[in-house]
């Protein structure tokens, strides 16, 4: 199919067409022409204030396949990702069984190799993500694992972290850690504050994250290698990471969009869709988060998509599972937390930066290049309807609300889907 994107603004820092309002012709998955186009195309996509970037990439997607397909499988996760603007996702290893064998990695890579959304496996650091025995990391790397993590479980064993950082240096690999001291957060439900005290919940102290970050950075300084901290939620942690970067350590971090869109006060209504780990922090913390984002300390923004079924969420708050469905609502959540121009400056944090960190090929918006693109509007509004959700789970607090920021189309692997 030949497609014309009419009068779109290119918003990609590396494109020679950056900031220009042009038309883009795509033929058989290749960008055929850019500029003033008068040729005939099978399909024309146009709209108000449309913007075109390289395909978005989420570095933290949890899917249920295998083991909990009733919450999400690879197909529904991919459909949700596409509707959210993503052409690539890095899949966390918290499946049953975990992504810890060469066959599991190869299966995931091959199954989506020609799909609209490419899935990249993050393999387990330890068997069954239990933090004890290391997986065959070198074999998993050769099979196609793009990084190593225990997903939503911290690498709590210091010697395991030390050895994993040593092993990945053989192929310049990446270790991703969820920074949390479980002994300090056992039974915690939300941010530790006056609000948690008033609601009668045990809180997540900032200390639980900061201690783990400080420990990991000290080990990194000792071993070398590359470490990435997932879903950081403490200004104290970000200050530690900032100083480590100044000292030359190879450390990066990401933050979930929901940490910028919501704060701990949303928990007061006991809506379990706001129950996430790490927890929603304070309004003052969010102001600090933006400071570290502007300074470049926060390298990547992620969805931290964790789908949960009704049986896991429609419970008393302290019994409900952690996690938010956020692939399809990443764009409106992020856009609601800043103005349109600021949003555009954030694009590299979920397009270029994750691909660079994972050593993946970078898409380009240039004539003759493969079309790996996201077409979106910052002004269009839409309602988050259960009947239109692509994900199998509906655990988002935005359900039934009208939001601003709409994905119009995604292009990848010679495929197109419009919304």
Percent helix among the residues? 25-40%
Number of strands: 18
What is the highest CATH level, the class of the largest domain? Answer: Alpha Beta
Strand coverage percent: 15-25%
- Total separate domains: 2
Query: Biggest sheet, open or closed, and with what strands and sense?
Result: 8 strands, mixed
Poorly predicted parts: none
By DSSP (H or I, 4+ residues per run), the number of helices equals 14
Q: Could you give the distance between the termini?
A: 17 Å
Mean of residue pLDDT values: 97
Per CATH, the architecture of the largest domain is Alpha-Beta Barrel
> Oligomerization state of this entry?
single chain
Question: Quick recap of the structure?
Answer:
Helix content is 28%, strand content 24%. It is of the alpha/beta class and 419 residues long.
Describe this protein with a few key phrases.
419 residues; Urease, subunit C, domain 1; TIM Barrel; 2 domains
What would your notes on this structure say?
- With 419 residues, the chain is α/β, with parallel strands linked by helices.
- It folds into 2 domains: 2-51 and 367-418, Urease, subunit C, domain 1 (Roll); 56-357, Alpha-Beta Barrel (TIM Barrel).
- It contains 14 helices and 18 strands.
- It has helices spanning 74-83, 102-111, 137-143, 158-168, 182-185, 194-199, 206-223, 235-246, 258-261, 283-294, 310-313, 330-336, 340-346, 352-357; strands at residues 2-10, 21-27, 30-35, 43-45, 50-54, 56-61, 86-91, 118-124, 147-149, 175-178, 190-191, 203-204, 227-230, 251-256, 300-302, 373-383, 402-412, 415-418.
- Strands 1, 2, 3, 4, 5, 16, 17 and 18 form an 8-stranded mixed beta sheet that branches. An 8-stranded parallel beta sheet has the order 6-7-8-9-10-13-14-15.
- Helix 2 runs parallel beside helix 3 (137-143), helix 4 crosses helix 7 (206-223) and helix 8 packs parallel to helix 10 (283-294).
- The longest helix has 18 residues, at 206-223.
- The mean pLDDT is 97.
